[in-house]
């Protein structure tokens, strides 16, 4: 890859290294310069630019990051679309993250252009939580390095995966000494049940007996079959020959390990009976606060029970006790775990099709499905969390045509007032937990789900990318992603121009997202365009957008 000053005569196709402002127009870093861009730079008196130019031995940053991420990701891991050489990986389910640290290290050691950053091994994760990010540092990576990373990732199971929690059945036995109140034991039951249910399991049995070896052994033998047996002693285990371990052995069990280098949680006992794990609980297990028991329980629930050696390796990072130099949860210090953005796709399908005559273009059948289904299906196939369809003109017919699809319908009775009224209606139905919306137009049948995913990947309001709009050859198209911060302004718009006018107001928060999909410029709004699209689709061939059809208002 070449990087450095380039005369304009060699700049077409190069990637701009630094943003440039030409009057009111800004060419941002990372823009691939077109012939028109070069001409605009020349007209502005610029003779050379600092840019990168790829060779045949290079792979562009987005393609390289996507390939490394795809090779790295294993089960229950979602790979997001690439943007600026970065691909984020997210959990698809509750479970434990498993990392092959040696192979991740090996990939990071190959070349400075390829990097992977992950959460620690065995981190408990929730759906949508970010697990890792793949970042290509320059504008491209050597093809040989990308291929080597793929080979390393393919050497065995993928080096990054989520082990889903299984629905464990759990039995609990508690011992008691004279004078111990039932309320203390009842609290232990409540805390244990909450712990187990948080991992998708169920506490199916609880019993109590005297803190005596014989009595406890009898209770262990009588306990119903369960995936895991927990024993909470009235007195802490102080030795392998104490009451709890002795009773387990008397009932036919085997002690695997006593003690763990995790605080709180030091006095945990690891055992097995009838092929199932048995845990003698430390006293801290009666508290809901994180302790070593949680680490072992999570491993068992994820189908990866720790061995004696595994427990003995838990010391690094095993100091869980609150200490003066660590911010305490009760002090009000909190931070949100990085996660996938919650994006709602808003499909506007309320228009009157005034240029179509008596025909409602959205209901026109194309290869057995209504035209509007193309936009809806693209949204459903994307990484959008949910899809809302705004109906208006012939709303009942549009809803019937899409009735078999998992979307939410909202009706705009004021659809005759223009696009802004449909936008207002749709925004009012957006869930409160939504971070952003992607405004899709129902008469744009060629927008692919990959375009939507790329907008989601680009979205980062903290980095100034709060409005994301796709472009091709420098032309802005649809759909457009809008951060929640703009909802109030969008809802206050009037007329038929949509949210286009807001883009100029907030240029500093705008991100143009280059795509290769000319469908972002193509809408069907005349009988001739509908006929041509129907014919082309029937032949399985899509022609380039007609210039006359490229005028839809973004957003």
TrEMBL record:
Which superkingdom, per the lineage?
A: Bacteria
The protein's UniProt keywords, in alphabetical order, are:
Magnesium
Q: One Pfam family name from the record?
A: MoCF_biosynth
- MoaB/Mog domain location: 171-302
- Tell me if Magnesium is a UniProt keyword of this record: yes
Matching entries from SUPFAM superfamilies are given as: Molybdenum cofactor biosynthesis proteins (SSF53218), Nucleotide-diphospho-sugar transferases (SSF53448)
Magnesium among keywords: yes
Which InterPro entries has this protein been placed in?
A: Bifunc_Mopterin-bd, MoaB/Mog-like_dom_sf, MoaB/Mog_dom, MobA-like_NTP_Trfase, Nucleotide-diphossugar_trans
What this protein is called in its record is: Molybdopterin-binding/glycosyltransferase family 2 protein
Q: Which organism is it from?
A: Azospirillum endophyticum
- Which taxonomic lineage is given here? Bacteria, Pseudomonadati, Pseudomonadota, Alphaproteobacteria, Rhodospirillales
């Amino acid at each position: 890859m070449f990087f450095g000053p380039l005369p304009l005569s060699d700049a077409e196709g190069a990637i701009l290294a630094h943003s440039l402002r030409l009057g009111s127009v800004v060419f941002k870093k990372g823009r691939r310069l077109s012939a028109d861009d070069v001409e605009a730079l020349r007209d502005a008196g610029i003779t050379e630019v600092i840019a990168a130019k790829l060779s045949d031995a290079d792979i562009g940053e987005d393609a390289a990051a996507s390939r490394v991420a795809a090779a790295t990701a294993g089960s229950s891991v979602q790979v997001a679309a690439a943007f600026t050489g970065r691909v984020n990986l997210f959990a698809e389910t509750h479970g434990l993250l498993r990392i092959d640290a040696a192979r991740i290290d090996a990939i990071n050691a190959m070349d400075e252009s390829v990097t992977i950053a992950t959460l620690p091994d065995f981190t408990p994760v929730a759906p949508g939580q970010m697990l890792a990010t793949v970042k290509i540092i320059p504008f491209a990576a050597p093809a040989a390095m990308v291929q080597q990373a793929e080979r390393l990732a393919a050497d065995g199971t993928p080096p990054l995966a989520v082990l889903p929690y299984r629905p464990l059945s759990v039995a609990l036995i508690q011992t008691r000494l004279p004078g111990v109140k039932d309320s203390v034991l009842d609290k232990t039951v409540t805390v244990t049940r909450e712990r187990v249910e948080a991992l998708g399991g169920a506490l199916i049995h609880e019993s109590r007996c005297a803190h005596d070896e014989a009595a406890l052994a009898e209770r262990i033998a009588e306990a119903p079959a369960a995936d895991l047996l927990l024993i909470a002693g009235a007195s802490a285990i102080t030795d392998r020959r104490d009451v709890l371990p002795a009773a387990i052995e008397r009932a036919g069990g085997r002690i695997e390990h006593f003690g763990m280098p995790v605080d709180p949680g030091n006095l945990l006992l690891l055992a097995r009976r009838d092929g199932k794990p048995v845990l003698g609980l430390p006293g801290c297990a009666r508290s809901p606060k994180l302790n070593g028991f949680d680490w072992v329980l999570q491993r068992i629930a994820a189908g990866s029970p720790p061995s004696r050696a595994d427990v003995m390796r838990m010391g690094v990072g095993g100091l869980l006790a609150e200490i003066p130099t660590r911010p305490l949860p009760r002090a009000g210090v909190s931070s949100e775990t990085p996660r996938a953005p919650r994006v709602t796709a808003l499909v506007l399908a309320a228009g009157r099709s005034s240029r179509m005559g008596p025909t409602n273009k959205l209901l026109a059948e194309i290869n057995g499905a209504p035209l509007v289904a193309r936009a809806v299906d693209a949204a459903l196939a994307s990484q959008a969390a949910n899809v809302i369809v705004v109906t208006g003109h012939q709303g009942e017919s549009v809803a019937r045509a899409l009735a078999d699809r998992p979307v939410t319908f909202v009706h705009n009775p004021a659809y005759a007032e223009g696009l802004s009224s449909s936008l207002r209606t749709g925004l009012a139905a957006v869930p409160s937990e939504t971070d952003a919306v992607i405004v899709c137009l129902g008469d744009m049948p060629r927008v692919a789900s990959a375009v939507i995913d790329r907008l989601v990947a680009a979205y980062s309001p903290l980095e100034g990318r709060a409005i994301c709009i796709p472009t091709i050859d420098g032309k802005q198209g649809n759909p457009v992603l809008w951060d929640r911060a703009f909802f109030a302004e969008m809802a206050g718009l009037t007329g038929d121009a949509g949210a286009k006018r807001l883009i100029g107001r907030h240029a500093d928060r705008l991100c143009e997202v280059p795509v290769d999909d000319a469908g972002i410029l193509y809408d069907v709004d005349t009988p001739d365009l509908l006929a041509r699209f129907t014919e082309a689709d029937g032949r399985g061939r899509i022609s380039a957008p007609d210039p006359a059809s490229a005028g839809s208002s973004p957003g």
